[in-house]
Amino acid sequence: MVKERLKKYRRWNRGQIGKFITIFALNILLIAGILAGSIFLNGIGYNAVEPDFIDYFTKSPGSQQFVYLMIIIVLVMAVTFIYLIFENRDKIKQPKDVEMIFLILEISLLCNYFAGRYINIYFRPLALAGLLTLLLVNRRSAVFVNIVSSLLTFLMDVFTNANFTGTVSANAQYSSLVIGFATGIIGIYLIDGVGARIKVFGRGLTMCIPVLICLVLLEQTNLLRFPERIVAGASSAILSVVLFMAILPVFEWLFKKLTNYRLEELTEHSAPLIKRMIEEAPGTFNHSLVVSNLAESCAIAIGEDALLARCAAYYHDMGKLRQPEFFKENQQDGHNPHNDLTPELSANIVRAHAKDGYDIVKKYGLPQEIADICLQHHGTMPMMFFYAKAKQFKDGGDVDVEKFSYAGPKPQTKIAAIMMIADAGEAAVRSMKDRSREKVDELLRKLINERMQLRQFEDCDITMKELNIIRNTIANSLTGVYHSRIEYPKVNLEEIKTEESE
Ligand SMILES: [Fe+2]
Ligand SMILES: [Fe+2]
After folding, report:
1. How far is the CA of 375 from the centre of ligand 1 (A)?
2. Which neighbouring-strand residues pair with 405?
3. Using alpha carbons only, what angle is made at residue 15 by residues 12 and 18, rounded to the nearest 5 degrees?
4. Which of 164, 236, 374, 399 lies at 20 to 30 Å from 390 by C-alpha?
5. DSSP-derived 3-state class of residue 234
6. Which domains are delineated in the chain?
7. Distance of CA 262 from the midpoint of ligand 1 (Å)
8. Treating both helix axes as pointing N-terminal to C-terminal, what angle do 282-301 and 306-315 enclose, rounded to 10 degrees?
9. How far is the CA of 379 from the centre of ligand 1 (A)?
10. Angle of CA points 105, 107, 183, to nearest 5°
11. Ligand 2 centroid – CA 420 distance (Å)
């Protein structure tokens, strides 16, 4: 078990480990700067009797206490990253993910300091770090980062007030630690999985309850300031949510992270590229809609990210926007421009939609995960229709199959594999006359076998069991989608092959 984890850890190369150490060292310095700054502000602003800032750092006990504080912080941060890297290796993929966690903690620390110092000690966004980590990494990391954030705030409160009359009373320091710990964790569980950003505000109000319970229990001795503290405490939960909603898009953009909110926004019909697709390639849009339902069901069935699968399906054929009329689903007037082209030229045009999709999606600033699926959804599959046509032209002579194959790469993730099967399955089943459960299942079985024979799934860790689940899910969904239609025009086998390869 430990060996396996170490093996995963070794996926970082030397350069990345070097970067990780540099980022770690620089950020520890930054945290030291934040703490020194808060000592400066507390000392100069509050206590005129206290010697100046330089004295604090050159004479003991101030300097000793600061060194002690920094050692504690290095230890806390080292343990944090040991935990995150070993437990969430798939989420902490690159050194920039480490930078992101540091940035979350630093921003939270700064917000907690300034809100506590200049507004009210109980009006601090103590749940902010946990909430940001929840959306940008996952729930498990969020719970841990929330604990670390509460601990860092507590250390900052204790040490930056150590030599002064203090802006934070001892009671308030302990209360903040408990409130941060409690609201952060409750907030993480309340907000996890909430689809729309607007609903988060509603849930944020519920976060006031644990703050109020803590305050009532911890602050009952100071009756004079009780009402003021209750109002500040209750508002702090709302402040956490407001700052979280304001800062999250910046992190999404800065670290190119795909959150559920971003995925929801990308699948709205008003999203710029979706709008273009509806107007310029309505046939492809309808195809993508059906594929998105299939991909989402398959992702749920094998425990993958359903929202990512749904969103990727919306965008997988975006490359067809370049020349929509060359794809069957958009040929409403019955004219097929491929009739006037050589099979080689036709294959080039159809092949290009994977790379074009990648380029368009990147140009519009969409996340890498979506762009990769555009590129991988046909893998290196041959376009059988054009290959057969070329062979016919050469009277059965030799034709290089590679010239009639997609450029790849093959699917690298389970979601890309789902997309490959759902995409081909939808197109093939749409062209079938008899859509009974048995026939659909038989076709899907053939389609998956072909892809397995052509080793399309060798770069992703999908299992046979998962492929069977995917086949069953698609067969159930497609039988449901198409069963009510009665009469369809006759389509010959060649056309079915075209659909499979496009
Ligand atoms: Fe495609
Ligand atoms: Fe497609």
Report:
1. 9
2. 382
3. 95
4. 374
5. helix
6. 2-255 (1.10.1760.20), 261-501 (1.10.3210)
7. 23
8. 160
9. 10
10. 65
11. 8
Give distance in angstroms: CA of 184 to centre of ligand 2: 42
pTM for the predicted model, two decimal places: 0.72
Q: Which residues surround ligand 1, an ion (CB under 5 A)?
A: 317
Reduced to 3 states (helix: H, G, I; strand: E, B; else coil), residue 29 is helix
Six-digit token string for 250? 């910046």
Chain segment 389-411, per-residue pLDDT in tens: 888 887 767 888 888 999 989 99
Counting ligands in written order, the one closest to the CA of 422 is 2
Q: Which ligand is nearest to the CA of 373?
A: 1
Residues 101-115 have pLDDT tens digits of 999 999 999 999 888
Cα 114 to ligand 2 centroid, rounded to whole Å: 51
Which ligand lies nearest to the CA atom of residue 501 in the structure?
A: 1
Taking 60 as the threshold, does the pLDDT of residue 46 lie above it? no
Beta-bridge mates of residue 382: 405
User: Among residues 375, 370, 404, which one has the least CA distance to residue 387?
Assistant: 404
Q: Which long-range contacts (CB under 8 A, 24 or more apart) does 340-349 make?
A: 342/390, 342/393, 343/386, 343/387, 343/389, 343/390, 343/393, 343/404, 344/386, 344/390, 344/403, 344/404, 346/386, 346/389, 347/383, 347/386, 347/387, 347/390, 347/403, 347/404, 349/323
Spatial neighbors of 182 by CB under 8 A, at least 6 apart, are 210, 211, 214
Distance, CA 354 to ligand 1 centroid (Å)?
6
